[in-house]
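for the writeup, i need someone to sanity check this before i put it in the appendix. the sequnce is what the collaborator sent (i think, or maybe the updated version? ugh). structure was predicted straight from it, no edits. if anything looks off just tell me and ill rerun, i have time this weekend
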Amino acid sequence: MSIAHNRSNLALAFALAILLAVTLLSAQSRLEPPDSPGDVVTKLWKSAADGKLLSVEGWKNNSGFFVHPSPPPEANPFLVVSNDWSVGPVIVHGDHAEVDVSYIAAGKIDASLRYSPPPKIPYMKTGKAYHLIISTSPHDSAYGPDEKTGSAEWKIDDPRGLPWTTVHGAIRYITGMRDKSKDPVVTKNADETLAKLAKLN
């Protein structure tokens, strides 16, 4: 076998190795979630703190954080939590993760804007554990249906439950609803609720 032939085979093998490496890296980068599990939960809680979960549009816009989206609540109560909350610890096992959020429960608001205090617990702070999985959205591939392509995201696998916001978010929401309401009962409830929330602010 000639030296030229050997060099040609080596060059071909080297080119194939580079092509394979680039393909694998490209596939890996496409499937690597852009946000960590902690980032996902933090973004959801920031949106809740801004009061965005209390509107139909905001509820729908935040459906992407969840594996199982649910329709927006109709005239349901919402929970109020402390303005200060923290995300962590975050535990990741492969394509599953658990993210804890610590906060202080601050009560509940019903559809008529009445306030109910939180149940008494032996500890001042409470917490919620979110369970996340990596969800992959398949994309059309130029290499055929068997080619593994798509985008991966960490998504919350738990039910959505009731909407919630912080004390600040609740005050903004209730003030806006009171100013738009023509129902004297709702207005009275809102004023009383705002007075109670002001003590928690």
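The first helix runs from residue 3 to 31. Helices lie at 3-31, 37-49, 56-61, 167-180, 184-200.
thx in advance!!
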